[in-house]
Design a protein that fits this description.
single chain; 433 residues; mainly alpha; 83% helix
Amino acid sequence: MGTWALFLTVISIFEATKSGLLKNAHIRFVSASSNKKEKTEIASASILINAVVTLLFVLFLWFGSGWLGVKLHAGNNLAVMLKCFIPGLASMIYFSHLEAIQQSHLDFKGVFAGYLVRQLSFFMFIALHSYLHLPFTLAYIAIYQSISIAVGAITLYFFSRKYMYHRFDVTVIWIKKIIGYGSYIFGSNVMANVFSNLDQLMTASFIQVSSVTYVAYYNTASRINGMVDIPSYAAADILFPKSSKAAVEEGKQKVQYLYERMVGILLSFTTPAAVFIIIFPKIIITLIAGAKYDAAAPILQLYMITGLLRPMQNQAANLLNSIGKPGLCFLINTIGLAINLVVNYICLVTFGFYGAAIGTLITCIIGSVIWYFIMRKQIDLKVRNVIKYMWETYVIIYEYIVNFFKNKPSDDETPKVNFYEQRYENSPSDFNA
């Protein structure tokens, strides 16, 4: 389990950072263009850069996976998994490219279908393998993962082909534009993704006795933590094009409103979930991973405390990129990573097994303070507005439930008043949002 966690960490860091280089640039440039030829050139340049970056990573894995396995104390198993996943990396070129095409047209149905088929097919491979009682090795997981990504890419293609012109027309101009726009975001994503996985990487590197087993505990807590973060990452995909447009057309006040409202809505959902998990961590871990991972309960509690702060940080980084300040975002992420390295090292030496989790919490608190002052300067962030929108969300949910039962139609009657139209009849922009 620990080796599988390290495998996912290495692959996730690569894919997320590559996405930072290409995805935002692809979406921004295609959504802003109405010229068919220009859209073709953008897509062609994007997939070429995608393929070249992936090829470089494949070469690194082919020649350096053994060294990586030794450094992370995962032995030869990690090297074998990474090499077996090379076909999956090739499939990811198409999967991530088609995902960007979908999102650049504000169409998320294909992305949903692609990920659903990808994850479901992977689950079915594992379930079938287990049902047939076949001999099991870690290499099989990497192979099944590769096949499931290919199946997901095929599914995504059927949803994306209406937006494609099926021509390859690469120009140097667009290669430079995409790299120029995405370079800082690429760097920011490298820092952010190393930061988010640093607890597992440093635990594997510095705690040599049973380090891979310890990584399994951290990975279990990270997976549950990641589930709570899903609304935040989904919101980022929506906020990016909206705030980009608002920054150009409506100014800083509208950007401030979008950020504060989004963070308030996210906190209204993530806060109750985080509090529940903080109170009952062992129940959650037992349900998801089994009782043998109970040692991860304190790690999960510390992660959930950071989860109360992350929506603000995640949306802040995304917002800076969308309003044309990726350099500032890169600088903050670099400082955050440096602080995390030092704090995690001190905590690992001082506290041992739980050191990385304690270090992550301390760094997150420091990072939240830094992000607050940055957003205060950039968009005049007011915390009281975030709290107001958070409370408004609860009021809206409560009123909706009350009105649903109050206006519930009988068999021969339909409700005459739509709750949302009634609430926002004098504010059509809020209703549309």
